[in-house]
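User: Show me an example of a complex going from sequences to structure tokens.

Assistant: Sure. Here are the input components:
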Amino acid sequence: MSKPRVAIFDFACCEGCQLQIVNMEEELLTLLEHIQPVEWREAMSEQSEEYDIAIIEGSICRESDAERLKTIRQQAKILIALGACATLGGVNKLVNTFDNLEEVKRCVYGDSARLPHLITHAVKAVGEVVPVDYAVHGCPINGAELAYIIRCLLQGTTPVIPNFPVCVECKMRENICRFEYNEVCLGPIVRAGCDAPCPSAGMWCFGCRGMVDEPNINGARDVMARYRKTVEDLQSRLVLFNSEQEQPHA
Amino acid sequence: MPKLVEINVHHITRVEGHGNIAIRATDGKIDKVEWQVPEAPRFFEAMVRGRRWEDIQTIVSRICGICSVAHSLAAIKAIEDAMDIVVSPQTEKLRMLTLYGEFIESHVLHIGYLVAPDLLGVQSVVPLVASHPDLVKLVVRLHRLGNTMMEVLGGRRTHPLTLCPGGFKRLPGQGELRALQEQLTAALPDLQVLADAVYSVKEKLPAFERDTEYVALVDRGTYTFYNGNIGSSDTTNTVAVQKFKQVANEYIVPQSTAKWAKWHRASYMVGALARFHLNAEHLYPTAAELARYFGVTRGCCNPYMNTVVQLVETVHSVEHSLELVASLLAEGITPETPRVTAKAGWGAGAVEAPRGILFHSYAFDDNGVCTGANLTIPTNQNHANMQKDLEALVPTIITRPEAEVRQLVEMLIRAYDPCISCSTHYLNIEFV
């Protein structure tokens, strides 16, 4: 069997998830024995329009970007959304919370806001523009999870992504609950699979993997009440990475 | 028939973000040379508005995956400036170490993965895995050192978790610092091997010079990345960080979603070469020796040498990190809990990011909710200088074969190690 041809494309984002691919280090060298990268602008000068797997990083915030993404979707047999900007819209979606985007742009660029290259529309996650086959969650993603998903693809099996909350993994790491520190943590409703790096580093979960499919809202309410926090406190964190974005299912 | 040369580099590769180069010439006469930035704008200054002070770092770290520590620290310093928070010497040392982790990671990535293919005549690092396996493994090892430092100190490799106003959310243990000490010590011989490899192909770096203004942080007696005032090669006066808007005078150009900047001249440069220009005499000994080995001296105005100076800075980062780790181990880590009392105010913070000086400023209301922000990004400050360099370079090479012209202009932009997706976030919104 010939190696699957893989192309990586980036839209509006910090490119930190691509960096996690580089950060796979020796594992990336091993992966390169099984896949053939044909386009990856940040790392390679080679370009190609023939690929089997397209990996998409970033959010879509311009019509031209949406068109480019649709073309990529037509070319690719499998499309993977890489990281929170692609899977949820991520921090980029904070822009959608403005009442008037045009007014913000005028504040930013003055009269130049009308220049064609500054025309943006409401920010979209990749799955809101084209069908997504697999989502690699996180901000940034975990390289090992991407490697696992690609390994499953190569072997023809379906990757199993956790559908339980971060609290489970946080407890396994024997962390003291962030609510005990009088903080608002999204762990009770956000999808695990990250191994709770944030609470393990003394930080609350800020929801970069999105919510679990059926979050235990009543349980979360109880937690908030027990620690004298409000639903508004929870909402003010959920909005940061747009954790409530509905997820497409492969 | 006039001979028409038209070169369009659409989305230059092996750089962070999206940039284009457009060149048109008739009979060797230049009609157009243009550095274009079509990156999608992301409006970070607006995103932070209405968010509480403790969520600012989480948001602005996402401006850039490769400079996430620098963005986090610039924001944290600005918040501390606004709320009159003073941190301990231990916190300052740990922050510098975290920042050095980012410098090592970012500089090695640029030299080893992005520039090396140009010097070795290939399109990417992928063929080098087969042709230069030992060198690639060495680059991977050095790159990992930077990552490990960020992991140990910042809580993970990208988008740090422990850095916060007032100090650290989690402190490293003695054992972790000792392990780091071993890896830092092992990195110096590896860096010498990398330096020899770059030296052996250094004639691939074009001998192009253009005098310009250099801007970087300056601080008494140190090659600073974290403290100090704003310095320039055009003046002996320094400017306080709070007055950074006097330095970065920004303007809009039609070919760019990022703003451009100027100070004393039509353009200025920030980054490794600028820092070297202003602070070279304060380099640590092995780093200074490496600069001499390459024949780079203060006053060098060849932008292609930025990559070599990054190598020098990587060695300096390792040397200074070793000193910081030794001092932290000798003194022992004191448990400290960051304490912040939110209050209204305005503050500014600056650090050197791998690509150059970075400014953040924020205003807060009584509840610590952000009411306005202003971020000035290194690559944003470099755009005008890249354009001026292209204007000076292209007429001298335009008669060469098209592929060579294309290669040389791409290498010029790449030498700046631009972080283009960062640079489109400077949006000068001031909500009061």
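The lines above are the inputs; the final block is the predicted structure for all two components together. The longest strand of chain B covers residues 345-353.
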